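Retry 2 of 3 after timeout on previous attempt. Resubmitting structure tokens to design endpoint.
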């Protein structure tokens, strides 16, 4: 028996509004997708971040979320979609996974993700064990560098 996805294990109260996917909306949606062997590219309207926009059931939805819910399962309220292919214009459900916002950010290539993956400070000291200091807002600091900064007049 296949393991349940996160979406299948959450109570219905934790889901978004049900997807209103009329046959007409679905036909309009698929006319705006270019299917390739790798990604299924959204070729219509995109927002400034590169995510597709689509109007379905009288409301504006993100194209990748529409495709995921149409072909896979409802997306739980507390989860967001991570594009495993790193292509924001992709609407191919196997390239997507519902995850928490924090997990999505840390999987990315932004500053928060890059800093979270660091194992050494900028001066080469290890960021672990006794040398790791956690400061407010979960900032990781090197204790050796901190002591050196405090010693300087």
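Retry 2 succeeded. Sequence:
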């Amino acid at each position: 028996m296949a393991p349940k996805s996160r979406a299948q294990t959450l109570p219905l109260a934790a889901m978004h509004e049900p997807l209103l996917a009329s046959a007409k909306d679905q036909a309009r949606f698929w006319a705006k997708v270019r299917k390739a062997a790798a990604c299924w590219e959204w070729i219509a309207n995109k927002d400034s971040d590169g995510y597709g926009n689509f109007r379905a059931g009288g409301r504006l939805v993100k194209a990748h979320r529409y495709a995921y819910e149409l072909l896979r399962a409802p997306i739980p309220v507390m989860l967001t979609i991570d594009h495993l292919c790193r292509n924001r214009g992709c609407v191919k459900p196997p390239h997507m996974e519902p995850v928490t916002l924090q997990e999505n950010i840390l999987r990315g290539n932004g500053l928060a993700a890059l800093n979270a993956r660091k194992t050494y400070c900028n001066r080469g000291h290890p960021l672990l064990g006794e040398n790791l200091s956690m400061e407010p807002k979960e900032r990781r600091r090197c204790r050796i560098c901190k002591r050196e900064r405090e010693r300087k007049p």
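Attempt log closed. Confidence is low (pLDDT under 50) at residues 1-15.
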